Amino acid sequence: MAPKVLIVLTSHDQLGDTGRPSGWYLPEFAHPYDVLEKAGVDITVASPKGGEAPLDPSSIEAFKSDEASQNFLTNKTDLWKNTQRLSEFVGKAGDYDALFYVGGHGPMFDLATDSTSHKVIAEFWDAGKVVSAVCHGPAALVNAKLSDGSYLIQDKELTAFSNAEEDQMGLSKAMPFMLETDLVNNGAKFVKADEPFGEKVVVAGRLITGQNPASALGVGKAIKTAITA
Questions:
Q1: Is the alpha carbon torsion for 98, 102, 106, 108 positive or negative?
Q2: pLDDT for the residue numbered 212
């Protein structure tokens, strides 16, 4: 039977109080999806609210020359326009091999504090499944606790969009918290690429994380390796 992955997108479409739209980030879904689809993985897509999950328009522009992203944008619209409500997957960890959170700034505003998402994460982890995220996707992991009350990320090596990268984007003041800072404060062993926006993928047992858009393909490959080995 084909491996199954539950991919989670944000439902949040505004970038703080900037008046700018936000959402999930195109290559961070497109690149891992390509890897997993070609490997024959069965993919389900969910979001907190269900229905259409907002795609950050700035990611379309930034990756207009990226063939994989543009093909995905053109041919896979049903994946994010018809997401299932994440609450439907509580108690369903046994049906899947991995959980993956796509980045974009949106997760900083909804998934970081979403109790249903935290419950799903804990269930996947306790069931021995892969938990993975890229860029701002690890915002979903910051406050996630396991059944024993400990933070999932405690004493685990991981990566995510760094403070330096957020500063260079000029968006630190628009964020509800600094992702790197809060991951560290909740016990994570945070690592990052030598230079901002460089590729960095961390595989720490069943926890797979990527730092930024450049790391999305590598995260997809790492998930594939973990669930098809």
A1: positive
A2: 98
The pLDDT-based confidence of 1 (bands split at 50, 70, 90) is confident
CB 171 within 8 A of CB 15: yes
Q: Which secondary-structure segment (H or E) carries 45?
A: strand 42-47
Compute the C-alpha angle 101/107/110, nearest 5°.
Answer: 120
CA 105-109-165 angle, 5° bins: 35
d(CA 212, CA 134) in angstroms, rounded, equals 6
Mean pLDDT, residues 201-209 taken together? 98
Looking at residue 52, the DSSP 8-state letter turns out to be P
- Which helix or strand (DSSP H or E) is residue 208 part of? strand 207-210
Query: Which value, in Å, is the radius of gyration of the alpha carbons in the chain?
Result: 16
Please give the DSSP secondary-structure letter assigned to residue 107: G
Give the C-alpha separation, 129 to 95, whole Å: 10
| pLDDT tens readout for residues 19-57 | 999 999 999 999 999 999 999 999 999 999 999 999 999
| H-helix or E-strand spanning residue 226 | helix 216-228
Q: How far is C-alpha 166 from the geometric centre of its chain's CA atoms?
A: 16
Find, among 164, 166, 226, the residue nearest to 201 by Cα.
226
Give this prediction's pTM: 0.98
Torsions phi, psi for 82 (to 5 deg): -135, 50
